[in-house]
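INFO  loader      accepted 1 record
INFO  loader      residues=327
INFO  predictor   begin
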Amino acid sequence: MANKKEFKAGTYAVLVGIVLAVVLTVLTVFAFTTRYTGFSGEKVAQQYVDTIVQTGDGYNAYKNTLVAENPKLKYGDFVRRAYMMPYVNEKDAEGNEIPQAAFVGTGSEEEQTKIDEVYNTMYDFYVSLINEYGWDNYDEVYTHYFEKLVEVRHEVYGDEFMNMDYMFGALEANVATYGESLTGVEEQIAQDGETVLREASVGKYQEMYGEEYRLTTTVVNYEALSAEESQAYVAAFKERIAPIAAQGEQKSALLTADDESAKENMISAFAKLDCSDEITEAAKATANVTLDDGTVVATQELYVVKIGNCWFVDNTNIDTTGLYLTK
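INFO  predictor   done
INFO  writer      dumping tokens
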């Protein structure tokens, strides 16, 4: 199997300037594409499955689900309020900034080495979470990941500082590295034509399906539920989401007495997951993932629901285990 591709902070710093313009363009296209796709339940189902299967990216697949586009709370805000805020430690009780390790922000070799250590340690932990829980159980993944990140950062940096930017940075770097472990990466050379910014690697998918593999996700069946069936589906969704929405109360009780704001935000974030009163329609979809020769490597059934003019995947009623093809 392919070896883990370790995160290199020094290489990352060099690549930032090159990648930034591309990222901004991609984000603009993604935002437009997501809004357009949302008007079709079939396209939402296809994009959700394809996002996971291409790079094992269950994290970004949530952008097509009720968690991401709940009309009461957006995905990023949900993650921040439900999982990050209890660990944020930027200022003390008097409003003074929490000191960070002396090397932070210096761009020194020491800082790069420390970032590498944290990100690589967390990558191994991230993979273990995906293998144990999978993104269908995002609650376990987020809860354990951020708890571990705080522990590792403090151990490696020797400070008590933590903010949301650092948390998102570590998680998204690990998500990207996991995807690269599946797809492989091409060698990247600096403008001098000699310096290797990134070494090439062979991904697990290439080992499984060949160097020129291509995976295509197609919705092969799409059935709209009748008005009566949709009402029954919404009622079932409300029952499923109720214990999840109540988790905020349970989790907030574990926080310290000084975290009143964090408690309130956590309770509110989970409570807003119940958007059953907003759902008007539902449909069932089946998607196949195939190789170029027609071989079906995965089949996924899922339900999509409509809120306003847009469709979203119901992430409370799905098992995506089969889309993680290397397991």
